[in-house]
Amino acid sequence: MSESHERALKALERRGRLRSLAARRGLDFSSNDYLGLAGSPELAAAVTEAVERGVPIGAGGSRLLRGNDAEHEALEAEAARFFGAEAALYFGGGFMANYALFSTLPTRGDLVVHDELIHASVHDGMRAGKAEIKSARHNDAGSVEAAIATWRASGARGRPWIAVESLYSMDGDRAPLEDLMAVADRHDGMLVVDEAHATGVYGDEGRGLGARLEGRDNVVSLHTCGKALGSMGALVLAPARIRDFLVNRARPFIYATAPSPLMAAAVRAALRLSASDPGRRERLAHLVAFAGRALGAHTGFAPSGSQIQPIVVGSDQRATALAAAMQARGFDIRAVRPPTVPEGSARLRISLTLNIDETAVAGMVAALAEELAAEAA
Q: In a designed cystine with 203, which of 100, 123, 207, 370 is the match (CB 3.0 to 4.6 A)?
């Protein structure tokens, strides 16, 4: 390792930002397995059945070579019907899918206006693309429209692309999708909605917060499969010609080994569970409401209203110390620090899933209240 690498690691350590891998321990308050499907007998049975009928573990190549398995195509057809879009394309993960979308679809002369809190995968995709990039204030459709108007006034003639998350992964708040859709319509724009943290949890049968917008010719959505759907990969839902363009031009799709066909079978099973078992979403909604009341009553932190609850404490060191204290008490809560979140907003990211119950939540809130009080003393 070079001296510059060593200096960079030491600088991260001094600032309280050095990352390391930590084993799972304690009660799950950090995963994105919102519906508890990752270890469910239903998905295990689906994978077992797929193995028994000869579905291979590995794809053996990219989709454009010999890696295109019947399970991939069956999933894409089923996902398009489930979400109400014209076509679907299965990627190995959400990061890869977002990178592919934003490095491929907006072209030279176009504009991408992104929410200031958009995911890192979108930033990396935009930087690899050729379109102009502008940031808009968080959840502010007026800021998005102003950015487009300024760009048009400069003489630009391309197409604007609006990039948002439907439910933000670090704050747990929702985007004003109807207002953003109206902006896209007024400016002949495309709306790209990352549903990563809403898929399976919100919308009719778990179709996401933007379900009503699916199927429009100026909407592209991304539904990840490794969060509430409990498996792996990501589905891009789009008009058929956009899917065709991605197959032909998206380097992360063309040059990557295809996802495991077994995972495609697992995702199909998860989609069917999402449609047939609303009880999971209902139980999670009750847990979210319970946690919100408890946090408000005992810690003073306002509930986010979703399964993602940030506890913003400010400094990096305070966030890491508080996370370590909670982990020592048996609650697997992790600290999130810049650059993942804005400077000065280091936090605990509390995730609510069906891997825990109200008793666990009550214990976690009591412990958190005690740790916060000890800090203040």
A: 207
- At 233 the pLDDT is 97
Task: Tell me the pLDDT tens digit for each residue of 251-267.
Answer: 999 999 999 999 999 99
Cβ atoms 294, 361 nearer than 8 A: yes
Active-site pick, 40, 121, 169, 304: 169
User: Which residue ranges form the domains of the chain, and what is each CATH number?
Assistant: 21-39+278-376 (3.90.1150.10), 55-276 (3.40.640.10)
Specify whether 165 is catalytic.
yes
3-state helix/strand/coil string of 263-301:
HHHHHHHHHHHHHHCHHHHHHHHHHHHHHHHHHHHHCCC
Catalytic status, residue 169: yes
What is the model's pLDDT at position 377?
67
CA angle 101, 104, 108 (to 5 degrees): 125
Of 115, 197, 316, 351, the active-site residue reads: 197
Please give the Cα distance from 60 to 183 (Å, whole number): 43
Residues paired with residue 347 on neighbouring β-strands, in sequence order: 312, 336
Choice among 69, 194, 332, 371 that is catalytic:
194
Cα 343 to its chain centre, rounded Å, is 21
130 belongs to the catalytic site: no
| 76 phi and psi angles, rounded to 5 deg | -60, -40
Q: Residue 72 catalytic? A: no
Q: Which of 221, 227, 260, 306 is catalytic?
A: 227
Write out the H or E segment, with its range, that includes residue 77.
Answer: helix 70-83
Catalytic residue among 28, 145, 165, 371: 165
Active site residue 139: no
Measured in degrees and rounded to the nearest 5, phi and psi for residue 24 equal: -65, 135
pTM of the model: 0.93
The tokens describing 230, both together, are 């409990």
User: Which amino acid appears at position 192 of this protein?
Assistant: V
**Which residue among 72, 114, 119, 223 is the active-site one?**
119
Grouped pLDDT means (10 residues each) for the chain, 377 residues: 84 82 88 97 97 96 96 98 98 97 97 97 96 98 98 95 97 97 98 98 97 97 98 98 98 96 97 95 97 94 95 91 95 93 94 97 96 83
